[in-house]
């Protein structure tokens, strides 16, 4: 049943996922965590919700346009289900906005496979990564992903390696001008502290540590199985999957460096995770096993959610 509904790309799938995220987003804020907002704050939350919902379309666009996955909606389904596993990330607007801009960067990086307008894509990706770092300073590590993409797709052209520095200069100058006009010239020095302090108390709660560890293990396992199935695929697809896997590793590193009370950056690792999970599901040929795994993928997140609520 689930494979029939989400096994194809249909408008109804968008409606289901977007409607669910809309309801779940407000449910997390008002009922799960009991937040109360003033009208200006409510408007801000609505704008952040808009970025979250648009992220769903971005995820689907990236995987379909670049033929990373097949013609199905499993990627957006898994993306929505991960918000159920980590509902606290919906409380952090920086997580949603940082993830949104990283999706824009990823869109440009994976499209480098076509070898068309490579320099423009590198420049755009660098800009989006730098913009995402305005929400989480450690997100600047994703610049490494830009250089990894250059290494994979265009290492022989020396100009490609210089483009990210041009992007850095452009973003710095624009941001500096805006900050001067806003009278907040010290923002960059205050924001880019790159502070790391391991919060043992945060990870001592099983709901945080266990979920994150299981999330990483499941993603690595499905990714490994997906890579084994990619043996006969074209070189371009294998390279793209390597880039996505590397993105997941960087996402986990940033998550560990930044995670603390009221800061939940796990969403930045959602996209590569759902791609790896989708590739694994697609590799399963037996319809019954695929259906069982899809049912489990839906039931388990809600079980984790309600277990966390019951423990509280």
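-> sequence recovered:
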């Amino acid at each position: 049943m689930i494979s029939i509904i989400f096994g194809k790309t249909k408008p109804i799938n968008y409606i289901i996922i977007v409607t669910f995220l809309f309801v779940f987003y407000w449910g997390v804020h008002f009922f799960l965590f009991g937040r109360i907002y003033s009208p200006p704050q409510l408007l801000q939350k609505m704008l952040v919700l808009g970025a979250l919902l648009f992220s769903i379309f971005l995820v689907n666009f990236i995987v379909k346009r670049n033929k990373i996955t097949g013609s199905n909606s499993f990627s957006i389904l898994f993306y929505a289900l991960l918000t159920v596993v980590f509902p606290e990330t919906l409380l952090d607007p920086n997580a949603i906005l940082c993830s949104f801009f990283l999706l824009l960067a990823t869109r440009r990086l994976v499209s480098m496979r076509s070898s068309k307008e490579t320099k423009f894509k590198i420049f755009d990706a660098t800009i989006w990564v730098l913009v995402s770092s305005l929400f989480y300073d450690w997100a600047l590590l994703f610049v490494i992903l830009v250089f990894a993409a250059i290494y994979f797709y265009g290492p022989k052209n020396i100009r490609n390696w210089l483009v990210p520095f041009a992007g850095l200069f452009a973003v710095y100058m624009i941001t500096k001008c805006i900050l001067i006009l806003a009278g907040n010239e010290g923002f960059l020095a205050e924001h880019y502290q790159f502070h790391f302090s391991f919060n043992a108390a945060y990870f001592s709660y099983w709901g945080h540590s266990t979920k994150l560890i299981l999330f990483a293990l499941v993603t690595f396992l499905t990714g490994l199985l997906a890579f084994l199935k990619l043996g006969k695929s074209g070189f371009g697809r294998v390279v793209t999957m390597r880039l996505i896997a590397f993105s997941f590793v960087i996402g986990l590193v940033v998550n560990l460096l930044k995670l603390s009370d009221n800061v939940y950056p796990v969403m930045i690792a959602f996209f590569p995770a759902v791609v790896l999970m989708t590739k694994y599901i697609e590799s399963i040929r037996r319809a019954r096993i695929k259906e069982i795994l899809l049912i489990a993928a839906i039931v388990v997140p809600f079980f984790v959610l309600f277990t966390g609520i019951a423990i509280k």
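The chain has a mean pLDDT of 89.
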